[in-house]
């Protein structure tokens, strides 16, 4: 969903640039709480993985393809603040080295994929997690739903930006229908990849999954209660 | 699995995806590009300022073989992201603070908080 230069006017690009700078600035402070000697290498790995997986466009339907956005995946693996940083680094490298996503559109792309995508994915993940039992087996299925929702939400945000600062006179309802339609399909791919990756990490090292921390904590408490009762 | 083994395995998988599997990715336009084409604003996209980059469009300048050209671009990109994101994470991280460590590593109650 990399926006090229020219889709949005200069004012909107400046505004999204400001949002991106503020968002990344907040993330730099917030990520401090999420990162320590043990989790910092995970952040490098997750960013690298998102970059690599974004190269793997999967066919959708009728001559269209989609690729992982990775915001929900990164948020669940390393925490939302760190995820904003990881996806931002990916987008900056793509724009500067690979001419993928415009340079004046970098703020737009960071706002959409690194901020809206991460936030949508993380909020859906935490909201569902809050009402479900604290079971490790539920982390990957909840991640699937969060990842799925994050893609059409990001598409919706693009349509909103286009409504404010699009450079061509396009009927917004047509754009909305088309963007939501395709990105709901792409969301299925996002959901499958996110579920597979989160499920695999949970299987090997659940303690390295940020989104599983609360679940693991409650499990520790249960064990202690059992020991207390036995003593 | 040790954390170091886990992270190295993950990086190898990521490099394999970017360097090899990417060749088999779909070359159809992505959702946004397709919608832009259908609704008629794809032509508002401007020439990219970094179009002259030696890795522009995930192809390596001067390498003719598509598989090698794309694979090399993918591996270089993945390594650049690894260095930048990993470096940033290490720069931002907390040092010598274990407040987020699992409970069994903490000091007994009271000893830590004076």
Descriptive key words:
heterodimer, A: 231 residues, mainly alpha, Arp2/3 complex 21 kDa subunit ARPC3, 2 strands, B: 114 residues, 46% helix
Distance between the termini of chain A: 58 Å
- Series of secondary-structure elements of chain A, N-terminal to C-terminal: HHEEHHHHHH
Number of E-type strands of chain B? 0
Topology pattern of chain B, helix = H, strand = E: HHH
Summed over residues and divided by their number, the pLDDT of chain B gives a mean of 87
**Helix count from the secondary structure assignment of chain B:** 3
Radius of gyration based on Cα positions of chain A = 19 Å
Number of domains of chain A: 1
Distance between the termini of chain B: 36 Å
Can you tell me the overall shape of chain A?
Answer: globular
What integer is the average pLDDT of chain A?
94
Largest interface: A-B, 79 and 68 residues
How much helix is in the residues of chain A? over 70%
At CATH level 3, the topology of chain A is Arp2/3 complex 21 kDa subunit ARPC3
CATH architecture of chain A: Orthogonal Bundle
SSE blueprint and pairings:
The complex is a heterodimer of chains A (231) and B (114).
Chain A: H1 10-34, H2 40-54, E1 58-59, E2 65-66, H3 71-78, H4 80-98, H5 106-131, H6 139-165, H7 172-204, H8 213-230
Chain B: H1 3-19, H2 31-39, H3 66-92
């Amino acid at each position: 969903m990399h926006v090229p230069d020219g889709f949005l006017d200069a004012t909107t690009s400046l505004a999204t640039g400001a949002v991106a700078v503020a968002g990344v600035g907040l993330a730099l402070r917030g990520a401090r709480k999420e990162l320590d000697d043990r989790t910092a290498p995970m952040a490098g790995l997750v960013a690298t993985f998102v970059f690599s997986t974004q190269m793997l466009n999967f066919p959708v339907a009728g001559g269209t393809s989609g690729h992982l956005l990775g915001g929900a995946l990164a948020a669940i693996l390393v925490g939302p603040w760190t995820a904003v940083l990881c996806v931002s680094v990916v987008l900056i490298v793509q724009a500067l080295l690979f001419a993928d996503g415009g340079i004046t559109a970098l703020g737009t792309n960071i706002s959409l994929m690194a901020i809206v995508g991460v936030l949508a994915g993380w909020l859906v993940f935490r909201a569902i997690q809050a009402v479900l039992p604290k079971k490790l087996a539920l982390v990957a299925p909840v991640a699937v739903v969060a990842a799925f929702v994050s893609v059409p939400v990001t598409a919706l945000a693009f349509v909103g930006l286009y409504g404010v600062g699009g450079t061509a006179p396009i009927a917004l309802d047509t754009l909305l229908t088309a963007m939501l339609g395709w990105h709901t399909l792409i969301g299925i791919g996002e959901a499958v990849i996110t579920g597979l990756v989160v499920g695999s990490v949970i299987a090997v090292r659940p303690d390295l999954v940020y989104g599983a921390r609360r679940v693991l904590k409650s499990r520790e408490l249960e064990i202690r209660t059992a020991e207390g009762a036995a003593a | 699995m040790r954390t170091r083994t886990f992270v190295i395995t993950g990086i190898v998988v990521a490099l394999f995806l970017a360097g090899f599997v990417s060749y088999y990715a779909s070359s159809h336009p992505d959702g946004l590009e397709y919608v832009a084409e259908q609704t008629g604003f794809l032509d508002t996209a401007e020439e990219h300022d970094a179009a002259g980059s030696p890795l522009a469009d995930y192809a390596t300048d001067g390498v003719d073989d598509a598989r090698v050209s794309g694979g090399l671009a993918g591996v270089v990109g993945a390594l650049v992201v690894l260095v930048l994101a990993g470096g940033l994470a290490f720069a931002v991280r907390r040092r010598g603070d274990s407040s987020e460590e699992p409970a069994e590593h903490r000091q007994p109650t009271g000893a830590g908080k004076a």
